[in-house]
Write a structure and sequence with these properties.
mainly beta; ten-stranded antiparallel sheet; globular
Length: about 170
C-alpha cells in the first residue's frame, strides 16, 4: 500500500509542476484518475493506466492513451518518473492570472527528481493564441527555462500575441 501511495504522489507532483504560475488551489484538490485499465506491478514499482486515461485535479486536465509511473528502488536517491503517451497527450490548466495554459505532444516525460519536463513529437505549448511548436520542448521547472528544438525537416514556430499576454484576465 505504501508503494501505491508514493506512486500516486508522483502523479500529484507531475500535475502540480507543469506550471509554476498555476492556480495555487489546484494542488489541494483531489486527484482523479479515470482509465479503462490499471495495472500495478509491485515488484518493479510500476503502475500503468491505459485506455483513454483522464487525470483531473482542480483546473488541471490531462488526457492520454497510456500513463506509466515508475518508482525507483528505495535508497537509490532517485525519484519517480512519469511517462504519458497519446496521439496526442493533452493537458489544460488555468493560471493564477485567469489565462488558460494548454499543451500537447505524442509523449510527455517528467522526472520528479530533476523536475524536468520533456514533450516529444509534435510538441506544443499554448496560452490563448500565443504558442510554441517544435519536435521537442523541454522545461526545467526549477530554473524556469524552456527550450524548443526541431529536426532537419521542420523548424520551431512561435506565435506571440502581445495584447493577450499583457492582459490581466481573459
Amino acid at each position: 500500500m505504501k508503494s501505491t501511495n508514493k506512486i500516486l504522489l508522483a502523479t500529484v507532483l507531475l500535475m502540480t509542476s507543469l506550471s509554476a504560475a498555476a492556480l495555487k488551489d489546484d494542488t489541494n484538490k483531489p486527484i482523479n484518475i479515470d482509465s479503462g485499465n490499471q495495472e500495478l506491478d509491485m515488484e518493479n514499482s510500476v503502475v500503468t493506466f491505459t485506455d483513454n486515461v483522464v487525470i483531473t485535479q482542480g483546473s488541471i486536465l490531462i488526457k492520454a492513451n497510456k500513463v506509466v509511473i515508475t518508482r525507483p528502488p528505495e535508497n537509490s536517491g532517485k525519484k519517480e518518473t512519469v511517462d504519458a503517451f497519446g496521439s496526442p497527450v493533452t493537458f489544460h490548466q488555468m493560471m493564477d492570472d485567469g489565462k488558460p495554459a494548454d499543451g500537447k505532444a505524442d509523449k510527455v516525460h517528467y522526472d520528479l527528481g530533476t523536475e524536468f519536463l520533456t514533450l516529444t513529437g509534435n510538441a506544443e505549448l499554448k496560452q490563448l493564441d500565443s504558442k510554441i511548436n517544435g519536435d521537442v520542448i523541454t522545461y526545467d521547472v526549477k530554473k524556469q527555462q524552456l527550450k524548443a528544438t526541431s529536426g532537419a525537416k521542420s523548424r520551431v514556430r512561435t506565435v506571440l500575441i502581445p495584447t493577450q499576454l499583457n492582459d490581466k484576465k481573459k
